[in-house]
Description:
With 181 residues, the chain is mainly α. The protein has one domain. It has helices at residues 2-9, 15-66, 70-74, 104-120, 125-128; strands at 139-141, 152-156, 170-174. The radius of gyration is 26 Å and the shape is elongated.
Amino acid sequence: MKQSREIKNKKGFTLIELLITIAIIGILAGVILVSTSTSRTKANIAKAKSDINSIAKAIQMAQIQTGKVLLQITGSNCSDCVCRPASMSGPAPDDLRNLPATNACYTRWITTLNNLETVSGATGLAASYARDPWGSPYLLDENEKELGCTKDNLLSAGPDGDLTTTSDNIHINIPFIQCLN
């Protein structure tokens, strides 16, 4: 009898109380992790949109300063063609994230930025906008020679780095200053 009274008087947690506490901490950690991941994705999307708008402004400034259409500035009528995956009749992999610096898609984009810098006098474009927040090069399709004078397209392949899943691509049309048709 004396021994059972001593056990009842001892203060502490039961195993069930500890398990419940651990479960609650685990649930809270999961909620915080999901919330942080969502916030990071939203921040990356906002950065990609901001980058695309900045690049588009640099393109428009170069066009205004030179009176040239984009394909005359970049030296290509389809800078992003080398970035299109095989499923879109191109040579690139489906996932454009973290391509090596020697990949044709990446080097074409850097050449485009360097040509923009040379023509416009802008500096730091290649250093600032070499890749989107997920590691893919931004993609530019100069369209002045296409039927109907369609607008130039600048885009990010988005979080998945895949052009074929267009639902997460971040895209802007750049108005042309003249049509070459």
